[in-house]
Design goal:
Blueprint: H1 11-41, H2 48-98, E1 130-134, H3 141-152, E2 156-159, E3 172-174, H4 180-202, E4 211-215, H5 218-225, H6 227-239, E5 245-251, H7 256-259, E6 271-276, H8 278-285, H9 290-298, E7 303-305, E8 308-309, H10 327-335, H11 344-349, H12 365-377, E9 381-382, H13 383-389, H14 398-410, E10 414-417, E11 424-427
Parallel strand pairs: 1-5, 1-6, 2-3, 2-4, 4-5
Antiparallel strand pairs: 6-7, 7-8, 9-11, 10-11
Helix pairs in contact: 1-2, 4-6, 4-10, 8-9, 13-14
Length: 428
């Protein structure tokens, strides 16, 4: 007989087992009675064939009755299991009803360790054409610039209206004592140096002596020297990279108004922007990076290079090497008397007559090239036409050329038409 090892049945299976037991028992009794009756019928006088049929049917009925008894016995095992299961279920129901209410187990949230913050080397700022250092008074702008200049290993010139004689050690400093006129004249000289280098570049020279110009207190210079000074600085920012002139500008404000570049905010893309102190903290707060915010807020000297935090080196003291000035810059100082380099910012501020439409020697090489080309065409020229017609502008962007168009129009060298995306220039 089969052993019953399963202890779980569906309710329909339990009911079916009970019916099978009842029907098997009733059928077995009935068939067994028919078999007895068939045996007794053989003793009744009848035809021989009828007696033979009764004798043949009786054993078959006895076998069927026996099979039904065995089936009832087999199914009885299911009945025992169903009864035991009902007791178990009843006991489980009682336990569940009498048990105290369950409490939800509080699962503490898993705190993931913050990702480590990748700090950038502050010297990577030297890979950009120019550097803009932002920081409040006492944040260490000058000290950091000295460290960068010492790592750049190039002759440097300092334009600082608030400098003391020993602030920049033995370096050449122009503008001390709030002499903004001297700073304006020197910026004009730098523009002339850039023009001379571009002329040499046009003749095939591609390598120039590197020259670093440090401009401190930039907002104060803008406030005292006006728009023309800012335009000269922006001209150097846009064009001096290819002739190895690099600017390092120090400022206490990052707004375009404080920098004097309203409408030219994109010029900041030419700089590697180094933010110190509160400027670095505010910049980190504006970014959706919690580990970065924590790293900057907990730093002793907060600093950021563009979008990356910086670990400033401990600068106890920097010895600045005084290197010889570039030869072409010294030649410009020797060959150009001071009265021949008139500051443009003075001329613009006091100008009453219109500017001459002829190409001025004060214009940079790119501006002069555009003006002369437009005069030859005697019609409105587009930025694309300048790119294809002047070799100097093969690598220049369309936006940069359109900025030149607008500058020439503002200075009364010609007229422009069209919007920002389709500006064209006509020389007078």
């Amino acid at each position: 007989m089969t052993n019953f090892t399963r202890d779980t049945f569906h309710n329909s299976q339990i009911l079916l087992s009970g019916k099978v037991i009842r029907y098997a028992s009733w059928s077995s009794h009935a068939i067994f009675g028919c078999a007895i009756a068939s045996c007794l019928a053989t003793f009744i006088p009848s035809h021989i064939s009828q007696k033979l049929v009764n004798v043949a049917i009786a054993p078959i009925l006895f076998v069927i009755s026996n099979r039904l008894d065995r089936l009832a016995l087999y199914v009885t095992g299911y009945g025992a299991i169903s009864e035991a299961q009902s007791h178990i279920q009843y006991r489980n129901w009682l336990d569940a009803s009498l048990a105290p209410p369950r409490r939800e187990v509080a699962i503490a949230p898993i705190e993931l360790a913050p990702e480590p913050v990748q700090f950038s080397d502050i010297r990577k700022a030297l890979s950009k054409p120019h550097i803009l250092v932002l920081g409040e008074t006492g944040s260490g702008k000058s000290t950091l610039v000295k460290f960068l200049v010492a790592n750049a290993v190039a002759p440097s010139l300092v334009l600082d209206s608030h400098a003391a004689p020993d602030d920049w050690q033995s370096m050449t400093v122009i503008g001390m004592g709030r002499n903004y006129d001297a700073i304006g004249e020197e910026v004009e000289r730098l523009v002339a140096l850039m023009d001379a280098r571009y002329e040499a570049r046009g003749e095939g020279q591609k390598i120039f002596e590197p020259f670093i110009v440090i401009l401190d207190e930039f907002p104060a210079c803008v406030a005292n020297l006006g728009k023309a000074f800012t335009e000269n600085i922006m001209l150097l920012v846009r064009e001096s990279r290819k002739v190895a002139i690099r600017l390092i500008v120090l400022s206490q404000g990052a707004e375009v108004k404080a920098l004097g570049i309203e409408g030219q905010g994109s010029i900041r893309e030419c700089f590697a922007i180094v933010a110190l102190g509160k400027f670095a903290t505010d910049k980190a707060k504006s970014m959706k990076d919690e580990p970065l915010k924590l790293a900057i807020s907990s730093a002793e000297y907060p600093a950021m290079l563009d979008e990356f935090p910086c670990q400033l080196p401990k600068i106890d003291g920097v010895t600045l090497k005084v290197l010889p000035m570039p030869k072409d810059y010294l030649a410009l100082l020797t060959n150009s008397p001071a009265d021949t380099i008139k500051p443009v910012f003075k001329a613009v501020d006091t100008l009453s007559a219109p500017v001459s439409t002829s190409a001025s020697p004060k214009l940079s090489a790119p501006l002069s090239a555009i003006l002369e080309y437009a005069k030859k065409q005697n019609d409105f020229v587009s930025a694309r036409k300048i790119q294809s017609g002047i070799r100097l502008f093969r690598d220049a962007s369309v936006r940069e050329i359109r900025n030149y168009f607008q500058w020439l129009a503002d200075k009364n060298y010609g007229d422009v038409r069209g919007d920002v995306e389709s500006l064209e220039f006509l020389a007078k």
